[in-house]
Amino acid sequence: MGECTYRVKNLRTDKMLAHSVGWAATHFSRMKGLIGQASIAAGEGLYIPHCGSVHTFFMKFSIDVVFLDRENRVKKIVECLAPSRIAFGSIGTFGTLELASKNVRKTSCGIGDQLYFQKNDV
After folding, report:
1. Which of 19, 31, 56, 58 is deepest in the core (most CB within 10 A)?
2. Among 18, 115, 45, which residue's Cα sits nearest to residue 74?
3. How high is the pLDDT of residue 2?
4. Residue numbers of the domain that contains 10
């Protein structure tokens, strides 16, 4: 998922959503997303900035999708988005966090929660 990864923590619950989140910063990484991966492990994910919708076409697994505003507040959540589906964020969505399916429920993440991204040491 790239060289630089981030830990993502929910500031309301003080729970870690993921310990290894890639950052889709390039045009290619944004287009590719999680396509081609066999699965996504618990604690892993992908953040796509400037993204208001995602799809799971050509994917073999479900994901949780968290739509965030510019301050990384949760605007909308789509849990267990199955393969070959599309999800749209709400007004004010700035970026999208894709996580392992059922991760949102396990970490008690909710609308309005503030997420904190911390760069992992290389």
Report:
1. 56
2. 115
3. 47
4. 5-119
Pairing between strand 63-68 and 74-81? antiparallel
Here the tokens at position 111 are: 């609308």
CATH code of the domain in which 30 resides: 2.60.120.1140
Q: What is the pLDDT of residues 34-70, one digit of tens each?
A: 888 888 999 999 999 999 999 999 999 999 999 999 9
H helices of the chain, where?
27-32, 103-106
Task: Find the farthest-apart pair of alpha carbons in the chain and give their distance in angstroms, rounded.
Answer: 35
Per-residue model confidence (pLDDT) at position 32 = 85
Other Cβ atoms within 10 Å of 3 Cβ, number: 7
Burial of 118 (0-12, 13-18, 19+ CB in 10 A): exposed
Number of domains in the chain: 1
Name the 3-class secondary structure at 27. helix
- Of the candidates 57, 58, 69, 56, the one whose C-alpha atom is nearest the C-alpha of residue 96 is 69
- Residue 62 identity (one-letter amino acid): S
